[in-house]
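Apolipoprotein D and lipocalin family protein
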Amino acid sequence: MHRIAVGLSIIALLGGCMAAPQPSLRDPDKMISSAALFDPARFAGDWVVAQSATRGCAGAQQSWKLHGAGAYALSGIDCTGPVPAVLEGRAVLTGPGARLSPTQGFAKEPIFVLWVDQDYRVAALGTPAGNWGMVLTRPGMARGDLIAAAREVLDFNGYDLSRIGR
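Tokens:
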């Protein structure tokens, strides 16, 4: 009986050490939508995290390599948690529009490509739960006006821009 009490005490102590869950980055009462016109082949390639809620992620690189019809092999840095992490896995297009389901990374939450500019240089990504949101740019192609447009899309979809780094 003493072992059970000690075990429960340890579990309670460890539970107190866990970080409190962060509140959502987006207003759940606002609608969220993904890009309707989306070309998976044009989205494929290397991206740089321009802005996210994860500290230390500005400049992190991600690779979205097209892997078969409607899937990406993912690698690089995952900027969806409290700290940057290794990104490895796969994301499968589930539609409608630019909606993906990751097998690993991105907190295993649905990935919505909320917006991408017509030349696929800047994109806004998020998830319906609002646990993460980010702006991606192609390496060397960051443009202030397009990043501002991506932020407007995040705002339109209910994201708190004050929590997504500038």
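The radius of gyration is 18 Å.
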